[in-house]
Amino acid sequence: MGNSALLVMDVQRDVVDLADDGSGYLPRLRRAIDGAHAAGIPVIYVVMGLRPGDPEVSPRNRVLTSVVRAGLFTLGEPGTEIHPDIAPQQGDIVVTKRRGSAFSGSDLDLVLRVRGIDSLVLAGIATSGVVLHTVCHANDLDLHLTVLPDACLDLDPEVHRFLIGKLFPQWADVVTVEEWVKAIAPQ
Q: What is the separation of C-alpha 24 from the centre of its chain, rounded to a whole number of angstroms?
C-alpha cells in the first residue's frame, strides 16, 4: 500500500451542520483518525477556504457561486473551522484548498511529495463533492486510493450509495472504517 496518509476533507462546522444525518458519522471518523495516529499514518486535514470578498470565485462556477450565496467557507468565519469533535492534533497537517479537489489551489501535492506519500485514504463531506473530485484528481496522479465509505457523507444518500458502490471501486479500494483500522493496527 506504500506510504499512506489519511485525508479528512471539508469536515468543517457549517458543512457538518448541513450534512450530519445522525448516524454517528463524527465518532466513526474519529475512529479512523485515532486508528491512523496509532499506526503512525499521517493525518492531513483539507479545508475549503475562500478569501473575504471571494476574489477566487468566478460567476461561471455554479457550485462555488452557490456556496458563496449560502455564506459557506469564508476564511476566518467560525463555520469554516474544522469540527471540534475531530480537531487536528499536534503533528497533523492542515491544507487549505480553493476548489472541489483537495489538490486544487492547495499545496497538498507538495506535502505528499516531501513525505514520499503515494497512497491516500479518503474521508469527508461531501461524497459527491470533495471526495469525488479528489478521487478523480488523485487517480490521474497515479496514487493508490482507499475510500472509507462510512467516513464519507453526502446530502443525497442515493448519490453517496452510487458513488461508493459503482464508481469509486473502479479506482479505489472501498473499505469500512473498522476494516481499515483493523488492517493498519500495530501487531
A: 17
Question: Would the pTM count as exceeding 0.85?
Answer: yes
**Hey, what amino acid is at 20?**
D
Q: Would you kindly state where each structural domain of the chain is located, as residue ranges?
A: 4-184
CA dist list (Å): 110 to 40, 141, 158: 20, 13, 35
Per the CB < 8 A criterion, the answer to whether 138 and 173 are in contact is no
Q: Which pLDDT tens digit goes with each residue over 144-179?
A: 999 999 999 999 999 999 999 999 999 999 999 999
Domain 4-184 sits in which CATH superfamily? Answer: Isochorismatase-like (3.40.50.850)
* DSSP type of residue 74: B
CA distances from 61 to 25, 28, 58, 65, 67 (A): 29, 33, 5, 6, 10
Instruction: Specify whether the CB–CB gap between 9 and 127 falls below 8 A.
Output: no
